[in-house]
């Protein structure tokens, strides 16, 4: 049996058979070029196989992480998750470079001779949608990190330990990403949304439904049930109906203030203000798949909405409102500050109507949330259309 030694000479690092180590040392001493060592290395077939496995698995893991990173970046537009995957890629590459010689990895590669590339599997070419791509990439990342960890043990236990930590982090981030994929339809609709209407419960369900249908047709993208005067039973029953209709129309339905009702009625999400439950609690109540919106009145609140995991923000009050009384206004200056810093979809709110909409747009906003401008208009559908047409 061939004796194995830990070797750290020139470009040969790791555990090798004694003859390889001796040859490496001699080559080092002689200042010889590494090709001699590579030749010997290539002749050690089991070692070469280990390097081939590691090389293939490192590539697979890196490509998989990149696939997930692109989804987090371009579909979810989630900067935190994007950064997490980027860090995993970076840390994997740092660990690999510390323990493995790139020359040996490259020298072991033999793609034309890889029997695995000739095994056809149709499912490799079938992905129904982005969620299929994400699921496949997540599983590839997890498997290949495990492979690197296992075979890495034969090179250096410290490599295996580092990759194990990376694998645990990857599990966590993959789960966060996969849970969000199903929401990506909702988040996609949210990002496309421009006109947000806060609707009351109306005197009857029929009038409520008629209003949602008409306003959806006129361009309202998001409906929020905001009615502080009706009982919970009415809020719940209107929410059940609105959630269903909005889904059928490709619009979003959000419940004001009440995560419990949002969940019970299967709404798309909930909107809370600074006086309601903290956003972390709201998120734990509605889960990762529902939208959580948060009211903001200052740049600091915008920053904490972003770090706290809000999906969108309401920004205001901009102007004096007939719907709600305020002592102070954030105004258009606040909108300008938000426009230059926030990555979240941001809706200006408070007294916005056709007479002052241009000031909101000039401040850099193309999303507004309104009540009175539409509710109190002689021709609500016409006003909704006119507002929408200006929000490009
Ligand atoms: C889109 C949107 N933005 C802000 C608000 C205001 O919420 P909040 O501060 O909680 O005030 P109330 O609506 O509860 O009176 C909102 N509802 N929607
Ligand atoms: C709920 C709320 N929060 C800030 S302004 C506002 C009322 C929005 O209604 P309007 O568009 O009539 O001012
Ligand atoms: Mg509120």
UniProtKB/TrEMBL annotation:
Lineage: Bacteria, Pseudomonadati, Planctomycetota, Planctomycetia, Pirellulales
InterPro entries given in the database record: Aldolase_TIM (IPR013785), ThiamineP_synth_sf (IPR036206), ThiamineP_synth_TenI (IPR022998), ThiD2 (IPR041397), TMP_synthase (IPR034291), TMP_synthase_cyanobac_bac (IPR016229)
Family that this chain belongs to: Belongs to the thiamine-phosphate synthase family.
Name of the encoding gene: thiE
Domain Thiamine phosphate synthase/TenI: from-to ranges: 195-374
Protein name: Thiamine-phosphate synthase
Pathway where this protein functions: Cofactor biosynthesis; thiamine diphosphate biosynthesis; thiamine phosphate from 4-amino-2-methyl-5-diphosphomethylpyrimidine and 4-methyl-5-(2-phosphoethyl)-thiazole: step 1/1
Record's cofactor remark: Binds 1 Mg(2+) ion per subunit.
Reactions the enzyme catalyzes: 2-(2-carboxy-4-methylthiazol-5-yl)ethyl phosphate + 4-amino-2-methyl-5-(diphosphooxymethyl)pyrimidine + 2 H(+) = thiamine phosphate + CO2 + diphosphate; 2-[(2R,5Z)-2-carboxy-4-methylthiazol-5(2H)-ylidene]ethyl phosphate + 4-amino-2-methyl-5-(diphosphooxymethyl)pyrimidine + 2 H(+) = thiamine phosphate + CO2 + diphosphate; 4-methyl-5-(2-phosphooxyethyl)-thiazole + 4-amino-2-methyl-5-(diphosphooxymethyl)pyrimidine + H(+) = thiamine phosphate + diphosphate
């Amino acid at each position: 049996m061939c004796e194995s030694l830990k070797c750290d000479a020139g470009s040969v690092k790791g555990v090798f058979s004694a003859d390889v180590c001796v040859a490496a040392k001699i080559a080092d001493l002689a200042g010889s070029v590494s090709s001699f060592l590579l030749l010997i290395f290539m002749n050690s077939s089991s070692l070469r196989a280990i390097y081939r496995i590691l090389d293939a698995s490192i590539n697979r893991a890196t490509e998989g992480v990149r696939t997930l990173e692109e989804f987090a970046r371009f579909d979810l537009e989630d900067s935190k998750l994007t950064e997490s995957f980027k860090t995993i890629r970076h840390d994997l590459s740092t660990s690999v470079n510390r323990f493995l010689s790139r020359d040996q990895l490259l020298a072991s590669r033999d793609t034309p001779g890889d029997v695995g590339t000739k095994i056809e599997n149709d499912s490799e070419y079938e992905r129904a949608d982005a969620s299929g791509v994400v699921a496949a990439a997540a599983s590839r990342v997890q498997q290949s990190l495990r492979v690197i960890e296992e075979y890495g043990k034969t090179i250096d236990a410290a490599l295996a330990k580092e990759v194990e930590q990376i694998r645990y982090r990857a599990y966590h981030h993959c789960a966060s990403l996969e849970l969000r994929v199903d929401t990506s339809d909702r988040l996609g609709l949210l990002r496309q949304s421009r006109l947000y209407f806060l609707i009351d419960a109306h005197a009857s369900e029929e009038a409520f439904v008629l209003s949602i249908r008409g306003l959806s047709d006129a361009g309202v993208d998001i409906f929020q049930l905001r009615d502080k005067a009706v009982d919970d039973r009415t809020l719940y029953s209107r929410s059940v109906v609105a959630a269903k209709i909005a889904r059928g129309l490709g619009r979003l339905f959000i419940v004001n203030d009440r995560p419990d009702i949002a969940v019970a009625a299967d709404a798309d999400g909930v909107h809370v203000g600074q006086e309601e439950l903290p956003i972390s609690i709201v998120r734990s109540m509605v889960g990762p798949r529902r939208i959580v919106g948060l009211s903001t009145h200052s740049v600091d609140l915008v920053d904490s909405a972003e770090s706290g995991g809000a999906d969108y923000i309401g920004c205001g009050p901009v102007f004096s409102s007939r719907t709600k009384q305020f002592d102070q206004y954030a105004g258009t200056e606040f909108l300008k500050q938000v426009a230059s810093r926030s990555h979240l979809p941001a809706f200006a709110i408070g007294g916005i109507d056709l007479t002052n909409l241009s000031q909101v747009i000039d401040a850099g906003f193309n999303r507004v949330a309104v009540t009175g401008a539409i509710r109190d208009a002689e021709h609500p559908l016409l006003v909704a259309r006119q507002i929408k047409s200006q929000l490009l």
